[in-house]
Amino acid sequence: MAEVIIIGTPLETLVLFALMGLAAVVAALIYLALRPKYGKRKGQAEEPYLSGEGPEIVRRSEAPSPSLFWGFILGYFRRLYVFLRDYMHTGKLSDWAAYMAGWLGLAGALALIVSIYALIWGWP
Amino acid sequence: MMDAVTVALLVIAALVFPGLLFLFVLSMLTEWWERKIVARAQARMGPSYVGPVGVLQPFADFIKLLSVKEEIRQKFATPGVAKAFAFAAIGALSATLLMLPLSPVRLAASYDIIVLSYICCVWVPFAVAVMGMSFPNPFTGAGVSRFLTLYAVCEPAFFAAILVPVALTTNVVGTPLPYSVLFTAQYSWKLWLNPATAVVMIIALGAAAVATQAKAMAHPFNIPEAEQELIAGHMTEFSGQILALNNLIHDADIAVSALLITYFFLGGPYPFPHLSVPGVILMIVKYVAVVTVVSIIKASFGRFRIEQGVAVLVKYSLIPAVIALLAAMFLSAYPVLAAGA
Fold first, then answer.
1. B291-331, pLDDT tens digit by residue?
2. Alpha helix stretches (DSSP H) within B231-276
3. How many CB atoms lie within 10 A of CB A75?
4. Contact at CB, B87 and A51, closer than 8 angstroms
């Protein structure tokens, strides 16, 4: 008959992770027993596979982070990006200053209200 | 607390059935069936010579890669890291099965669907991505980038979809523990008895099927691999033993996803017990049906581009899964609408 073990979620998580680790270790031991017994050969191909070209044809092995960011933003959030750019980027410094001052002013006013509330009626 | 006999049973379950050994055999048989179905759809024979109707071919391929073939080590690679994560992924998939009613010794806890999603949804993709990046190469980088993009959509969609039967069995059917994997798998078949819950289950099943296709990286979602375009994507530098482990994780991921769909949506062997002839036959038929659908879709489509793949996943998997989840929440709030389930 099947046995159902009802335990708390944290304990179940620990038990599952322990069993996951056990299965991983046993799998690794089986792998060590079955892997080829010969050593590493000298003179084998050690360069990354680049369709027969050498690694010097690419300067970087990964895409640069800014390219990934802009690729993601323009690929999936183009409308939001265009809206924000057109709304905020008018080319005038005073517009930017007014925008930032508005938000910072709001944040400052909120901080002041909360501080006054806390001083008079205490922190909830 | 657990006594020594229970601990011994748990260890046997983790290593033999339904853990490591069973998962290995099931993965190999699943690969064989998938190869046979795809070959049939393409007017080929598929595996035919090793064992009866070629059923031992995946075993032979695995043993050959693991024990005979040489592992080419390029100078920037860290194969040890790749293998450590490969074993972690195999262990995670083995541990997942202990939460299902398939196991003779079953673990159950309240809200353990979160544990399942963490082990199954985070560890396996993370391990595959690290394995790819352990062999640096521009093709590998592009493949892993596509892999992570695809998984960022398909894993949330898959787990939003399987949350639907979990929520419904807890709130509508009523289970001894809330949001428990084990009790969801045992009672989910009752959700098909009521029209309201059945409609929600159909939507969630469709969403889970599309997400499984992407999790399996089968056509039309074989974008990270992208043969002839990215050489082999994240697997470009894999050979010998690391390729064997990668193939095993791939097959095991399909097998576990198919088992989750079989239990959560199709009801597993229920209403028959596991240890009965009708129960075993029903379970096998449902599992094979899920793998067959994945294989037929794989054989019927060409490859999407990455943005097409993500758009299709959002449209046909993520959004329907979220809609089904909202409907399930509504039915949970008004269970009288789902009376009879």
1. 999 999 999 988 888 888 888 999 999 999 999 999 999 99
2. 240-264
3. 12
4. no
Q: Which of B72, B103, B115 sits opposite A12 (nearest CB)?
A: B115
User: Which residues between 280 and 309 in chain B have a beta carbon less than 8 angstroms from any beta carbon of chain A?
Assistant: 307
Average pLDDT over residues B20-30: 95
Cα–Cα dist A21/A26, whole Å: 9
Whether B113 and A12 have beta carbons less than 8 Å apart is answered as no
Contacts of B286 (CB under 8 A, 6+ apart): B262, B266, B267, B268
Contact between chains at A9 and B109 (C-beta distance less than 8 A): yes
Position with higher pLDDT, B1 vs B174: B174
Query: What are residue B23's DSSP bridge partners?
Result: none
Neighbours of A40 (CB within 10 A): 8
How high is the mean pLDDT of chain B?
Answer: 89
ipTM above 0.90, yes or no: no
At B228-285, the pLDDT tens digits run 777 777 888 788 889 999 999 999 999 999 999 999 999 889 888 888 899 999 999 9
- Length of chain A measured in residues: 124
- What does R_g of chain A's alpha carbons equal in angstroms? 30
Spatial contact of B222 and B228, defined as CB atoms under 8 Å apart: no
Contacts of B94 in chain A (CB under 8 A): 19-20, 23
- Whether residues B108 and A4 touch (CB distance < 8 A) is answered with yes
- A48 and B136 within 8 Å at the Cβ level: the answer is yes
Across the interface, do B137 and A50 touch by the CB < 8 Å criterion?
yes
